[in-house]
Amino acid sequence: MTELMVGFWNLENLFAPENHPDRLAWIANKNKNDLVGWSEALFDRKISQLAKIIQGMNEASGPDILGVCEVENRFVLDRLVGVLNKGLSERDYKVVHADSERDKRGIDTAFIYDSRNLTVDPALIFSHFVLRRTGTRDILQATFTTNEGLDLVVLCNHWPSRSGGAAASAGFRATAGETLGYWHERIREVTGDTTPILAISDFNDDPFDPSVRFNAVAWRERADIERSRSARFYNMAWEYLSVEAVDEMGDMRQIDGTLYYKSDGNVFDQILVNRSLLKGEQGFCVKRGSAQIITIPEMVSRKSGSGPIRFGLPKGDVGKNVNQDGFSDHFPVAVVLELVDLPVS
């Protein structure tokens, strides 16, 4: 293996079918209205649609690591991985997942990774609490080791939403950013400041927002991160703020976000890398120009001011609120890491 593609995708409400027997009682009660009519057939169709996009990543060989969010439980992840493995014979995907009971809807973050090229030590999986009054998704941390013995630490995030307004909820995302920044520091203290560390997320904030820039310490100035010896990230999202993509009608259009709200694009889905990944200090180096928003024509709406074509949830009306030809309300994002020779000390 000479390259590693790491992606992230918000899978938009990937819940098990309506009457799933292993659903926790409080999750069933909280989501009962949204899941009415969420049949086994709809769930299977949603899985099929997501798998189509994931299998098409990385020149149709699938990603090596994919962080995901808005997944209900291990059951939905195992179903997705089962479909992926049938479609990609060269892969053997497995799951890293930790249940969080702090999110008000019971959704989690997780990793899907290729076990033929990577291993994960269970002792190096951590679920970091983001402490706030109403709870939110934990930050999931895992260390992936290549067959060559190289370690990569990845943190999967899904920060608090803008419910109630961006300004009113900003403090919650600042807290999440501080949590990420704290663990970035602690990882370096334990493993060394040349450890390759990558953070992927739906931040629910843009790259220029204070929670990302100041609390998580993720900057636009690549050269500053390359020179710095402190716990800072370079934000790869600055490289894909606006891209061109072919839409569902075959026309070229400008994409100005990883999701859209009221016709405005937001780049909430971001990839943060530390100095080690910029300089190749421990065997991994970011491939220049590889940071990207992933699109295929079927998922790009032809409507001006619209982004990805979402699948949706019934929310009381299957015909109105579910589009079986849709995918998610977010585009996936990804970056390629090159395996490089270690510097001679």
Describe this structure in words.
The strands form four sheets. Strands 5, 6, 7, 8, 9, 10, 11 and 16 form an eight-stranded mixed beta sheet that branches. Strands 1, 2, 3, 4, 17, 18 and 19 form a seven-stranded mixed beta sheet that branches. A two-stranded antiparallel sheet has the order 12-13. The mean pLDDT is 94. The protein is α+β, with helices and mostly antiparallel strands. The protein has a single domain (3-339), classed as 4-Layer Sandwich (Deoxyribonuclease I, Chain A), CATH 3.60.10. The protein contains eight helices and 19 strands.
Topology, pairings included?
Elements: E1 3-14, H1 25-30, H2 40-60, E2 65-71, H3 74-87, E3 93-97, E4 108-114, E5 118-120, E6 126-128, E7 139-146, E8 151-158, H4 170-191, E9 197-202, H5 210-215, E10 218-219, H6 222-227, E11 233-235, E12 243-246, E13 252-255, E14 259-261, E15 264-266, E16 269-273, H7 275-279, E17 284-286, E18 292-293, H8 318-321, E19 333-339
Parallel strand pairs: 1-2, 8-9, 10-11
Antiparallel strand pairs: 1-19, 2-4, 3-4, 5-7, 6-7, 7-8, 9-16, 11-16, 12-13, 14-15, 17-19, 18-19
